[in-house]
Design brief:
With 666 residues, this protein is mainly beta. It contains six helices and 36 strands.
Length: 666
């Protein structure tokens, strides 16, 4: 992966749940909740919903219900009340934005959405090849907030990696200065205001004014080499009209859209001054919609033909051109507050003028949308009424379950709890800190500080989603884990198959030669050779039993600027734990590699089997998942990458681990 940006890859298990048909008049199957949390908004209810509830809550129950005992009547009552409370969250409603198109429907007052999106593309090639053979990636992070029921505010932070836009005629164009500096994780920001000026039961219309701004640095390499800089604001205007049908199961949006590009760039695309051309005002007519297939699954997409103006650079000519923009895929709801999008796309941005820019090829996109009730220190009361699970038969109290010694093994951290892991041994110190935002969703930080003069250290971020829960009567628990890490400069030893490469490695970034030390560098410093981004995706699967538990964790490791035969590294961690007494268990784990190499043995990279064994002591602290571990391993560390990496010359590490949880401030 060649990118100075967030790596978002969140594959998921898609489960379609079709609603059952009512077996008796006035009885509708729904999510059960123990108590309604907020009053319903009558305007949002189907027209016939109040009648069944009136029948059920009346002192004079209908004849069919008289035959039921009191327990059955209460179950039916709760089933109908569940239709009223809690309300559908913004990600359950189909009338919101699609992937690249804002609908006419604003968020309700006080509602907040956060969304992260990444798109992955193959390099654009021409007669001169491409800037890099690795993945091209662009990413974004957005917030949308309902100021009033008629007004929505939003911000979208966007960026792309240094090897894009890519090949244009006989030039290679990169978003980076000639000395390798200038491309940060976030390069563009779009802010917008949506104002709804028309509203009927099924039809709404709004006006959206946005502006995209940023400082843009592009290096052209070809018959000559030069750098161009563009900056300033790029405004856009949209007038979406959204129609909702099929009792809220389908929405459709049509939106005339204007982007007022500067003459010398279309945000992510610069004009080559050696070739000429210009951009300017561009008009597109966007069409988009969402179809609800079940409580958890939606089909979503949008397409925008360009009526006049330009929104791309043609690869062969290097001149501005037109390209239809599209995004199409599916959304899976992990729970009513958390959704994953998987889609195909040729768009570079999501919002405003940035969403006009299109590539000539098709890429793969992944998105994660979260409905938080707090972003410390702010609270969003409007979001607190939304359900946190589709299965209300399972208590919202979630118990964290350990498996191996890896930082991201086991289950997800319960909502509102921190979980800390600390490892110390002859090889160095490693730590992680994880926070449960929902029982199905956690975020965290991790670090592996290696004292070796040959092997690298790594630090990074993690996101974990629980897709299946053994407590919900599934046969096992399955999660999806994404990490973005960055190595220290010593990683160049492994990449170059030389334990002394750090002392002489040529540095393409102009930051000096030599070892910067065991700490990964500041993300805003100029990179040195070997300081690479590491993106990983893994799927911890575990079955927990009183006496014997087991786990299987497939892992894929994507290494920035790695040789093609090295990245991705693909492995499989398989392990088991056995209860020896009420407080003591033994565990063992093997991690065979399916692809790539993981060990530096002398002056060669080789494939060596990682292994770990240990004992875990668990005190009687039911509220806090505390344990103490003694372990022996030949793995370099405890992140997904370093759990597959082998200590230089197949060395061994002996150490102690401490794991403990504590409640976050609520």
């Amino acid at each position: 992966m060649n990118s100075r940006c967030a790596f978002w890859l969140l594959p998921c298990v898609l489960v379609v749940q079709w609603p059952a048909q009512a077996s008796e008049p006035g009885i509708v199957e729904s999510r059960l909740i123990e108590e309604p949390k907020i009053p319903a908004r009558k305007s949002d209810l189907p027209p016939n919903i109040l009648q069944p509830i009136t029948q059920l809550t009346s002192d004079r129950l209908s004849t069919p219900l008289l035959a039921l005992d009191e327990l059955e009547r209460q179950k039916l009552l709760k089933a109908n009340i569940a239709l009223l409370s809690p309300e559908l969250s913004p990600i359950q409603r189909v009338d919101g934005r699609t992937i690249g198109l804002l609908s006419a429907v604003p968020l309700k007052e006080g509602e907040l959405l956060t969304t992260g999106i990444a798109r992955f593309f193959s390099p654009i090639r021409s007669s001169r090849g491409s800037a890099n053979d690795d993945l091209n990636l662009n990413q974004s992070y957005s917030l949308a907030y309902g100021l009033k029921d008629t007004i929505e505010l939003g911000v979208d932070l966007q960026g792309q990696n240094t090897t894009t836009p890519g090949a244009q005629q006989n030039y290679i164009v990169q978003r980076v200065e000639s000395n390798g500096q200038g491309a940060n994780v976030i390069q563009e920001a779009t802010v917008y205001t949506k104002f709804r000026f028309f509203h009927q039961d099924t039809l709404q219309a709004s006006a959206i004014l946005s502006s995209t701004f940023g400082s843009r640095i592009f290096t052209f390499s070809g018959p000559s080499t030069f750098t161009t800089r563009t900056s300033g604001f790029t405004p856009a205007l949209e007038i979406p009209l959204t129609y909702t049908a099929w009792k809220g199961a389908l929405s459709f949006t049509i939106s005339p859209r204007l982007a007022f590009f500067s003459s010398d760039n279309a945000v992510f695309y610069p004009i080559n001054p050696q070739l000429g051309g210009n951009f300017g005002t561009t008009l597109g007519i966007a069409l988009g919609g969402t179809v609800q297939l079940g409580p958890r699954l939606q089909l979503r997409g949008d397409v925008m033909p360009i009526v006049f103006g330009n929104n791309t650079i043609e690869t062969n000519s290097g001149l501005p051109g037109r390209q239809i923009v599209f995004n199409a895929g599916m959304r899976y709801l992990v729970n009513p507050r958390l959704a994953i999008d998987l889609f195909a796309s040729n768009a570079i941005g999501n919002t405003g003028a940035a969403s006009f820019a299109a590539r000539p090829d098709i890429g793969f996109g992944v998105g994660l949308t979260y409905v938080p009730d707090r972003i410390w220190p702010l609270e969003f009361n409007a979001n607190k009424g939304f359900a946190k699970s589709f299965n209300t038969n399972v208590s919202e109290e979630s118990q964290f379950v350990r498996s191996g010694i890896g930082f991201l093994d086991g289950g997800t951290i319960p909502e509102g709890q921190f979980f800390t892991q600390f490892r110390i041994g002859n090889l160095g110190v490693a730590t992680s800190l994880r926070l449960g935002l929902l029982n199905d969703f956690e975020v965290g930080l991790f670090s592996n500080f290696t004292a070796s003069t040959v092997d690298e250290s790594e630090a990074g971020l993690s996101i974990k989603l629980r897709l299946l829960n053994q407590a919900d009567n599934n046969p096992f628990t399955l999660s999806s884990v994404l990490t973005l890490g960055r190595t220290s400069s010593r990683f160049t030893n492994f990449l170059n198959q030389d334990p002394n490469a750090i002392l002489s490695a040529q540095n393409q970034f102009g930051a000096g030669i030599g070892d910067r030390g065991p700490l990964p560098p500041n993300l805003f410093q100029t990179e040195r050779a070997g300081e690479a981004f590491i993106g990983t995706v893994s799927f911890p699967l575990q079955q927990t039993n009183p006496d014997v538990s087991w786990w299987i964790t497939p892992k894929a490791i994507f290494i920035q600027r790695a040789p093609d035969n090295l990245s991705p590294i693909v492995g499989l961690s398989v392990g088991s734990s056995v209860r020896l007494s009420s407080h003591l268990e033994a565990f063992a784990e093997l991690s065979p590699l399916l692809r790539g190499e993981n060990a530096l043995i002398g002056n060669r990279r080789e494939q060596v089997l990682p292994w770990s064994i240990g004992l875990r002591w668990i005190p009687n602290l039911e509220a806090l998942p505390t344990s103490l571990e003694l372990f022996v391993t030949n793995s370099l560390g405890f992140s997904p990458l370093q759990s597959l990496r082998i200590i230089n010359d197949n060395g061994i590490s002996v150490g102690l681990g401490l794991n403990f949880g504590f409640y976050a401030l609520r």
